[in-house]
Structure formats: C-alpha cells, structure tokens
Amino acid sequence: MASPVPSDESLPQPVLGQPSSIAMFLVATIEPGGEPAVREVLGSLAGLVRAVGFPSPDGGLCCVAGVGSGAWDRLFGHPRPARLRPFRELAGPRHLAPATPGDLFFHIKAARPDLCFALAAELVRRLDARVTVRDEVQAFSYFDSRNLLGFVDGTENPVGPAAAEAALVGPEDPGFWGGSYALVQKYLHDVEAWEALAVEAQEKVIGRTKLTNLELDVPGSHKDVNTVTGPDGTEQEILRSAMPFGRPGHGEFGTYFVAYARTPEVPETMLRRMFLGGPDGGPDPLLDYSRAVTGNLFFVPSAGFLESWAR
Ligand code: HEM
Question: What positions does the domain Dyp-type peroxidase N-terminal occupy (predicted)?
C-alpha cells in the first residue's frame, strides 16, 4: 500500500510516537457562535505548542486536537471525513459504554506536568467562554508503563510503519490523508474488587502475566476479546494511548483510553465484543472491574489541514 503520508499537507498531528510520561486530556463542547474562535485556536495550535514548548526542548511538549461529528459541520462544513459519526452508545446485558457530549478533544503530552498545564491553561484562556470544558483529566505514566490494575499496558501496540498503517487515514479518503480517528473513553476501576482477586485470576482476565508481562493463551481474556481479524484473516490494529489517572483521596482510580485508528470500525468492533459479546468472544471480563463513564469519537485532521484554516 502507498505510504500514508504523501505530502506536507497531510503531515499528521503527533498521533504516532512513544507514550509520554505526562498527559492531559480535555473534552469540550462549543457554545453557539463560538465557531470562529475555535477555528482560530485550532489553526494556530502548532504555533502555540511551539511557543510554550520551545524554551524547554527536553520537555517534549506536543498536542493532538480532534473534532466531533456534529462540530465538524459547524467548524469546517463539507467535505467531511468519510467515517466521522457520533460515538454509538453500547448497552449490553451487564455493561454500558455511554456516549457523552464532546465537540473538541485535546490530548496534550509532555515529559513534565508544568508544560501540559501551561498549554492547557493557554488553550482554555483562548477559548474562554466559547466552549464548555466537559472533562479534564491529568494522567501520568505509572512505574514501567503499568495501568492502575498493575499490568503493563501498550505492549502489543504497533510501531514504526505498522503504527502509521493502523492509525492514519490514507488514500481511501484522499482529502483527509494523514488524519486519524480518536475513540476516547474514560474508565474507572473498582480497585478493591480487583485487588481481592488472586494474581492468577487477574492474569486470566487480562491474558498476560502480571510481573513479567508474558502472553497467556486464555480464551475470553481481555487480550483475546480484542484480537480482531479482518476478512482476509490479518489482525486489525489500533494505536492505543491509555494513561492512568486518579485521586486516591476520592477513591478514583482510572484509565483514560484513547484509540487512534485509520477507521473507527476497528475500535468499534473491539468495543462491541467487549461490551455486548457475541459469537467471536466477550463480553470482556475486564469490565467487571472497569466502568466506562465517557465515550466520544473525534476526527484528528492532519496538521496541514489545521494550518490551512489559519492561512
Ligand atoms: C479499562 C480500560 C482498559 C485497560 C485497563 C486495558 C488494559 C490492557 C492491557 C493490560 C493489555 C495487555 C497488554 C497490551 O498489549 O497492551 C491490553 C491489550 C489490548 N487492549 Fe486493552 N485495556 C482497556 C481498554 C481497551 C479498549 C476499550 C480497547 C478497544 C477499543 C482495548 C484494546 C486492546 C487491544 C487491541 C489490546 C492488544 C491485544 C493483543 O494482544 O493483540 N483495550 N489492554
């Protein structure tokens, strides 16, 4: 297949790349009449990130911005990314994946919390009363890339060209080459119930060993439910960027889950298996200990697309 990044115009936002030590996630809705201000902020995002990050070259500050289905029409009109649509709520017999309000998504990454904070503060200041921030999460990497359930998270993520292949739109939607779909969910864990399980039982839920992170062959595990193959038998991949967050004093222990994908169908298939179950597997035993409290689908246009609006 042709390279997914053919020109400067389709240079992606920093969707690919290593996980950051710190992240901040903002989800906001746009107030009526706020569209011009939002367009301006999105168009000047790259310059703003440069301004905040340049004095701290080791800080690795970067930001990915996404736009929800309804907001796309309000901000950019037509054409639309071919597969952009609202997040579809999934209500299974035992598990619910709710759809929650969200027009804009900012995924801010850095090696230091102050840089994430400074960029978020400036974004919110510029957007001012034109948006309502619906969710704001400060997340961090935890020990050796573990989630708050104690398991290493992200091992099977594609890397290099495979990551671009999994996460970036290519020739199938030429006007949006270099873009990506971001499926976003905030999960809260029942850590008490999880910790009451023996380690061997936890390992059967995840499908990997806890200490050594080795793959286990456990039908019905989280890993198994999320191993999805296409019609040609090849594995369908997404680029996950899940980060822990929490407030121990409030009993809050969570995973902020972001899947970047070339098409939303792949993470949507995974979610259907996780939440509804079906002949191919699921529901996912991880959901007995993890509750989804938000759900959104955004399109992350290429950096070139955003800058063209600034021009
Ligand atoms: C509570 C939220 C979640 C937690 C704590 C979690 C945790 C994990 C862990 C520990 C692994 C094994 C290591 C790895 O390869 O990363 C894993 C694998 C994976 N997860 Fe999740 N996950 C969560 C939600 C999701 C969701 C919502 C999806 C899909 C939409 C998903 C898709 C996958 C995939 C594709 C794999 C790799 C499977 C393979 O081995 O090929 N996860 N996850």
Answer: 15-140
